């Protein structure tokens, strides 16, 4: 038996095909944003075809497909559809996207090709991947966090990964933090954590690429250091809020901002958590995500992987061949 994994993001899409011994092949393309709203799931099917061709297998051998996708989701006729503002041009009058989609029938179209499909938000899939093969193997109370162009979370409490009524649990990037801030999020909120510190919104507010600001801060540029320190403080406050809400043990953190700058921002973030409510925060630890750029692909596979594959994969880390 073979399984497929899809990673659907706002800028790129990847497909991966795997067997009991590990991943066989991977294919990647920029995410399509033109045509009808079926164009995106149809691209996903074509990309799985391409991965199968690379692996030298027939697509009919794929018995299950796991999908890790950018959210948020709505449920239409019992099936997951995407309503992501970076993909759907019909959600806002001011959108500059080349389409008028108000939702994308992701599960509906995939289900016509594959009987056994599981769709999860990308941070939930990443959490499952890190709990299966990464930094928080079998940890019962943990949170996956990405600090990147956006901010997102995957939540696990008492060993249960939280999904929510439409699969949107963990969209805590849209928790409100600052009543006074003019920082605007793509969701319409002012002063939510994503508005304040995501790579895209820092650039929108400051008129400079976030990567440049964080790099200049690390070199000691005073203005940039002030912006970056404030961002680390807001990030720490968001993690404190989740600590207080979930009584979590571990935050496992990924995403491009954290990958490049987490090490020097770590003390500021830890201070924001540890300076409050010792009874809640004393044992909380922060870890770097272990699976890097493959976390979403592996997350997709984890959604449909037979349990007996996991031990051999843990011993041999077969995804390393693809990195
Ligand atoms: Zn928001």
Helix content: 25-40%
- What order do the helices and strands follow? EEEHEEEHEHEEEHHHHEHHEHH
> Which residue ranges are poorly predicted, with pLDDT under 50 across at least 5 consecutive positions?
none
Shape: globular
Alpha-beta content class: alpha/beta
**What kind of sheet is the major sheet?**
5 strands, mixed
Report how far apart the termini are: 23 Å
Query: Per DSSP, what share of the residues sits in E-state strands of 2 or more residues?
Result: 15-25%
Can you describe this structure in just a few lines?
The chain is globular, with a radius of gyration of 20 Å.
What does this protein look like?
The two termini are 23 Å apart. Strands 3-2-1-4-7 form a 5-stranded mixed sheet, sandwiched between helices. It has helices spanning 39-55, 106-113, 122-133, 193-197, 199-206, 210-219, 222-246, 256-274, 278-281, 295-302, 310-316; strands at 2-8, 12-19, 22-30, 62-69, 73-76, 79-82, 116-121, 142-147, 151-157, 160-161, 250-254, 285-288. The protein has 323 residues and is of the alpha/beta class. It is built from 11 helices and 12 strands. The radius of gyration is 20 Å and the shape is globular.
